[in-house]
Amino acid sequence: MTVQPVRLFGDPVLRTPAIEVVDFDKELRTLVRDLWDTMEAQGGAGLAAPQIGVGLRVFTYNCDGVAGHLVNPVWTAVGEAEQDGPEGCLSIPGLSWDCVRARDVVARGWNVHGEPVEVHGSDLLARAIQHETDHLDGVLFVDRLDEATRKRAMAEIRSAEWFTGTAPPIKQSPHPLFGTR
């Protein structure tokens, strides 16, 4: 089991769009294992590679009885129904706010062997797919909050015990790809 440190709000890697995976190799399989181990250890519903300092388009998920990973994911909403409910993030520990998301989505991507994968999600799984894909685009869920909630969220983040107010030092990733991103 290899649990990696989760990057916290303020770390530049969380605001940097990740690049597409082109090599479906042993390093990718190790990255997915590390994401899985870290997500499970932290009790998360999902975890994206940038959250452990790796700038690649990969995430893991485990919610609503459905678990897996997606490489180079894209998602589309199924219908126009929305959900408005609590959302949190391992990179913003201990805090959550209501966030509007599509209620039903279909995500397409690849597995670690380069085989196509399609995931249909509703409710929590749909929220996780959208949240983790946002991480791959350098977007945090606080960016999706309405103005008043976002203002309150930023105040709560600034007063959180874990928030230092300065950019954290760059940590070396154990993965050879973009180790300091």
Automatic annotation (TrEMBL):
It catalyses: N-terminal N-formyl-L-methionyl-[peptide] + H2O = N-terminal L-methionyl-[peptide] + formate. CDD domains: Pep_deformylase. Binds 1 Fe(2+) ion. It holds the Pfam family Pep_deformylase. Its cofactor is Fe(2+). Fe cation binds at C89, H131, H135. It comes from the Bacteria. The active site is at E132. The keyword Ubl conjugation does not apply. It is an enzyme of class 3 (hydrolase). Keywords: Hydrolase, Iron, Metal-binding, Protein biosynthesis. One of its GO terms (molecular function) is peptide deformylase activity. Its EC number is 3.5.1.88. The keyword ATP-binding does not apply. Removes the formyl group from the N-terminal Met of newly synthesized proteins. Requires at least a dipeptide for an efficient rate of reaction. N-terminal L-methionine is a prerequisite for activity but the enzyme has broad specificity at other positions. PANTHER family: PEPTIDE DEFORMYLASE (PTHR10458), PEPTIDE DEFORMYLASE, MITOCHONDRIAL (PTHR10458:SF2). Belongs to the polypeptide deformylase family. HAMAP family: Pep_deformylase (MF_00163). This is Peptide deformylase.
